[in-house]
Amino acid sequence: RGAIAFKDVHFAYDPERPILKGISFDVPAGKTVAIVGPSGAGKSTISRLLYRFYDIQGGAITIDGQDLREVTQASLRRVIGMVPQDTVLFNDTVAYNIRYGRPSATEAEVHAAAEVAQIKHFIRTLPDGFDTKVGERGLKLSGGEKQRVAIARTILKSPPILILDEATSALDTTTEHDIQSALDVVSKNRTTLVIAHRLSTVISADEIIVLRDGQIAERGTHVALLEKE
Ligand code: ADP
Ligand code: ADP
């Protein structure tokens, strides 16, 4: 479940300036595909199109063979879990923010999700740095930590498709490693599309697509692409 197909997709925000110039690729059900490329190449646009924030102007996008134009945004939200590059959290505890992924989740499930995302130690913290339990200032979450809260939320929601957009997040190496290991767990047996800036963060992807100027410049496994460099 959750196979994604882009077939000759054309898209422009402004008709004078095409962003995607006929993009075709598949993410087979349960596999992980990474999109990398320079900033402005159109990577994040691909994730927005999958969520139907915008309609394409040519070609087709399908999920399990069904044209996206026939799918409502509400049902897309059930099928796709999104970890955006700039995660905006509710001004409530990290635990509350995780539970939002599935309000019926038990306390133990919330803790288990936090453990996988490696954020268990600040589950009581408010994202802006106020500790509700202690009643004084606690941690102020970095962008990468907020992204891990979004990953934990997605673990609880457990959608067949996961989109992780790490395109422009300036993450330190530790956080990058934590996100990578959390992602490896979440993406297992789930159709996953990773939007990444660097090749180094997507080593385990089944296929890497290099997007340049709205077109697919190269594609292959991590090893194959490194050999070409
Ligand atoms: P990437 O994720 O590869 O950095 P984006 O998909 O975010 O690239 O953007 C591709 C191009 O589309 C950029 O030139 C960007 O300025 C432009 N763009 C992005 N969003 C919008 C928008 N909402 N309206 C107009 N242009 C946009
Ligand atoms: P909700 O059910 O709360 O609306 P969503 O899955 O729609 O949750 O969105 C979760 C977060 O991801 C929100 O911060 C939203 O702004 C952001 N988001 C959703 N879709 C996109 C997208 N296509 N591009 C960028 N950010 C997105």
UniProtKB/TrEMBL annotation:
| All residue ranges annotated as the ABC transporter domain in the record | 4-229
According to UniProt, the name of this protein is ABC transporter ATP-binding protein/permease
Where, subcellularly, is it found? Cell membrane
Q: Which residues of the full protein are shown?
A: 361 to 589 of 629
Q: Which family does it belong to?
A: Belongs to the ABC transporter superfamily.
